[in-house]
Task: structure prediction
Amino acid sequence: MNVCEIFPTILGESSRSGYPVVLVRLAGCNLRCRYCDTAYAYSGGQELPLPEIAGQIRGLGISLVLITGGEPLLQAETPALIEALLDSGFTILVETNGSLPISTIDPRAVIILDQKCPGSGMSDRMDPANLDLIRPHDEIKFVLYDSDDYSFARDLVSKKNLARRSQVIFSPVHGFLPPQTLAEWILRDRLPVRLGIQLHHHIRVK
Result:
């Protein structure tokens, strides 16, 4: 597998934000979001066999693992890595950009589906079938660039009844949409969503 980096850190996003985690970042991405903060994972990386990846993860002594990218589902071996880690007793989070089918992911894993909004420039690249496959223990994350993104996300949550089917998280793009503003919009509209602050922009643990 083509691996960008593996390291212990504090989880920056999701409902488990703040917990120690092993972050496994796989190289390669099929999208180019305008506000991407991991463009270094677009290419490069190191080819590692699955057993070596699993061994590095075990050696870090943390039971929570985030598999992300780039886009982890671009690599054919990713489902096998997820399954192997689950079989070893790890709790696995899989963060995917929503453009590829999530049906290949082991149902024991927690999917964090990053539903792209228009501000990303990539909203038309989503696989709409993924929202129908999401389960109660999964999470749907909307990263919001501006008020248009907020309206888009709010309407999609309502149309698809997403907040009753899964955990929904609204996160502001760091440096563009103030968290206070997003909080006010959520309260104004009484949305049953979670405000997510991207901790990795405020702390650097690696």
Remarks:
- The two ends are 22 Å apart (CA to CA).
- The longest helix spans residues 147-160.
- The mean pLDDT is 95.
- Strands lie at 2-10, 20-26, 46-47, 64-68, 91-96, 110-114, 139-144, 167-172, 194-195.
